[in-house]
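Priority: medium. Attachment 1 of 2:
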C-alpha cells in the first residue's frame, strides 16, 4: 500500500514538473553558421525539448518521419521537400514571402503547413510611410505577375489612412518607362518584397531614379535599406524565436495557416534621410508609434 500511495503521489505531481519533451526537427538544404546560431538559440529557449538540425537530403520522405515531430522548415528547398507528399508531420515554414507563396502555391494552403511570412505586413509599411512622410498621399507601387494579387489588399489598407495607391506594372525590367511614369505620379515609392522587381540587378536603377526625383523608397527589405532606401520594418531572429516558442507550446492542430510576427523593428538609412531632407529616423520611437497605431487585420 505504501508503494501504491507513492506511485499515486508521483502521478498527481507529474504535471507540475513541466510538459512532455517534444522532438523539434529543423531542416534546410545545408547547415551554415546562421542556421547553427538559430538552432542553438531555439535550443536555449526550449531546454526541455530535443532540438536538432538535419539537412533535408538526409531526411528521406516526409511520410517516413514520426508524425509527432515538430518540423521547422528554414528555406525553400526544405519547403519543396515537405510539399512532395501530404503524409508526414505538420511543419512551420520560415523565410517564405507572400509573393513566393503565391508563385509556388497559388491559393493552395496544405493543412499540414503553417507559413510564417518573412516580408513585412503591407499595412505596417504604409503606417511607416505615413509616419516618416506625413505629407505624402500618393503611394507609388510597382508590381509584377506574382505580386499583382497584393494590390487590392494595399488599397484596402490605404483607404482609412487617407492614402492613394498608384500602381504600375513593370513587365520588362529592361524598360524603365513604367518606373519613370510611376515616379512622375507619386509622392513616395513603396517597395513590395517581389524578388523579380527588387533584386541586386534592379537596385541601381530603382535607387538612382528615385534619387533623381528626390523621392523616398520605403522597403521592401532591410537589405534595400542598407543599399539606399529610406526605411523599412522587419522582424529579426529574436522576434521569430518568440513566435516559434509560443507556437511550439501549442498542439499543431492550433497552428495558424499563416502568420506575421507581432513584434518588429524599424531600420532606417540616416544618410538617405539627410539627402532627402527627412528628419533623422529614430527606429525605437518609430516602432513604438507604429505598434500603438496597429489594430491590424492581416491575411
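Attachment 2 of 2:
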Amino acid at each position: 500500500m505504501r508503494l501504491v500511495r507513492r506511485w499515486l503521489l508521483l502521478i498527481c505531481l507529474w504535471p507540475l514538473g513541466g510538459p512532455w519533451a517534444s522532438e523539434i526537427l529543423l531542416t534546410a538544404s545545408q547547415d551554415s553558421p546562421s542556421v547553427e546560431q538559430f538552432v542553438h538559440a531555439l535550443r536555449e529557449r526550449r531546454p526541455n525539448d530535443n532540438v536538432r538540425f538535419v539537412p533535408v537530403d538526409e531526411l528521406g520522405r516526409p511520410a517516413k518521419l514520426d508524425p509527432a515531430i515538430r518540423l521547422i522548415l528554414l528555406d525553400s528547398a526544405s519547403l519543396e521537400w515537405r510539399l512532395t507528399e501530404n503524409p508526414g508531420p505538420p511543419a512551420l515554414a520560415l523565410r517564405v514571402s507572400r509573393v513566393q507563396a503565391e508563385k509556388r502555391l497559388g491559393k493552395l494552403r496544405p493543412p499540414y503547413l503553417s507559413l510564417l511570412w518573412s516580408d513585412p505586413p503591407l499595412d505596417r509599411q504604409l503606417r511607416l510611410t505615413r509616419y516618416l512622410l506625413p505629407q505624402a498621399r500618393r503611394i507609388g507601387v510597382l508590381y509584377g505577375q506574382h505580386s499583382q494579387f497584393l494590390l487590392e489588399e494595399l488599397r484596402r489598407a490605404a483607404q482609412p489612412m487617407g492614402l492613394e495607391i498608384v500602381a504600375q506594372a513593370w513587365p520588362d525590367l529592361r524598360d524603365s518607362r513604367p518606373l519613370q511614369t510611376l515616379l512622375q505620379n507619386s509622392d513616395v515609392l513603396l517597395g513590395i518584397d517581389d524578388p523579380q522587381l527588387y533584386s541586386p540587378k534592379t537596385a541601381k536603377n530603382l535607387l538612382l531614379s528615385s534619387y533623381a526625383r528626390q523621392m523616398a523608397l520605403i522597403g521592401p527589405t532591410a537589405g534595400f535599406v542598407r543599399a539606399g532606401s529610406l526605411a523599412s520594418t522587419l522582424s529579426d531572429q529574436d522576434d521569430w524565436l518568440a513566435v516559434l516558442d509560443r507556437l511550439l507550446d501549442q498542439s499543431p492542430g492550433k497552428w495558424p495557416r499563416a502568420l506575421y510576427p507581432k513584434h518588429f523593428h524599424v531600420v532606417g538609412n540616416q544618410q538617405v534621410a539627410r539627402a532627402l531632407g527627412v528628419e533623422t529616423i529614430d527606429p525605437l520611437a518609430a516602432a513604438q508609434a507604429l505598434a500603438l497605431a496597429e489594430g491590424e487585420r492581416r491575411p
